Amino acid sequence: MNYSIAAVSRLTHLSPDVIRVWERRYQMVAPARDATGARTYSEQDVARLALAGAATRLGHPIRTLARLQDDEIRALIGGPNERQEGAGRTVERLVDAARAGDAARAVQILRAAASLVPARELVLEIFAPALRRIGEEWACGRAEVWQEHLLSDLVRSAIGSSGTSGTARPILFVTPPFEPHGFGTALAAMLAGARGIRTIDLGTRVPASEAVAAATATRARAVVAGISGALPRPALARAYCEELAAGLPDAVEVWMGGPLGTRVATELQNPRVTPVESLEAFDRLIVARYQARRRVSEKSAALVRP
Predict the structure, then answer these.
(1) Are 94 and 109 in contact (CB under 8 A)?
(2) pLDDT, averaged across the chain
(3) Which residues on adjacent β-strands are paired with residue 200?
């Protein structure tokens, strides 16, 4: 897949200006050009820029990095095992800060992680594991509910708002009126944004009729509904899913996440409804669906291009 410079900027946490300078002055990457002359970056280009960005944040000068192969840069910042171990330590520090009620320290940890880790890894390796860990601590009686809420609120603030700029068809994220938790859908929206997809997070307690109206008005490509089952209401979850599938235009898919949402979607066996078992599964799904459609669109455009 090829990426625009805007998408590369989101994926690597590098500004478009920095990417251009690294290309022009240091030949860090050599992007191709499309028919209009705009830069297009390959998966390899994105990976190399992400590595270089991580290395510069550790103090390595870009003029030195530009002369190195990707494996050599990777050795400077640590391989996958080192990264995972670092993410695990960050999760432990976040949970410890939440248990201590030290919001300032937790914010510092979150900000440092966000400045060093690409968005996809930030969600899958730090945000989601930290929320799962504090939830498990509460369930086992080792944490209070206010500590879980504190960390959840800080993570939500770190996630920020969804990406609503541009004219591409978005993916909408909702939770039903009986679902109080919206962190799963917020994390999924961040993952989609990291893939360069326009997202609109409508938040929690959204009636199915409102989700249908919003999806129709914005010409959404899909509606993602998260139902954790914290309040176990399978009949309501099933009715919500069926109302979405019946009310949305034929071109709009319904993706159901969360433990209860996944279960209901699987039981329905409706071809329009896709169960999504985890954030990792969601990430694979948007790559398969979005990138496949994009390639078809590009081929169609090439056929009609004079």
Answers:
(1) yes
(2) 85
(3) 172
**pLDDT tens, position by position, 10-67:** 888 888 999 999 999 999 999 999 888 889 999 889 989 988 988 887 778 898 899 8
Return the pLDDT at 74.
Answer: 79
The arithmetic mean of pLDDT across residues 106-116, rounded, is 84
Q: Which amino acid is at 293?
A: R
The rounded distance, in Å, linking the Cα atoms of 186 and 230 is: 17
Determine how β-strand 171-174 pairs with β-strand 222-226. parallel
Residues 6+ apart with CB under 8 A from 282: 188, 191, 192, 224, 255, 257, 276
Give the DSSP H or E segment for 224.
strand 222-226
Sheet containing strand 222-226, edge to edge, reads 199-203, 171-174, 222-226, 253-257, 273-275
Positive or negative, the CA dihedral 45, 46, 51, 52 is positive
For the beta carbon of residue 236, count every other beta carbon within 10 angstroms: 17
Write phi, then psi, for 202 (nearest 5 degrees). -80, -5
Query: Do 95 and 133 contact (CB within 8 A), yes or no?
Result: yes
Percent helix, strand and coil across the chain, each rounded to 5? 60, 10, 30
Residue spans of alpha helices (H) in 160-278: 183-194, 208-218, 234-247, 259-268
pLDDT digits (tens, 9 = 90+) for 201-210: 998 899 999 9
- Cα separation, 40 vs 1, in Å, equals 9
Nearest to 241 by CA among 301, 178, 186: 178
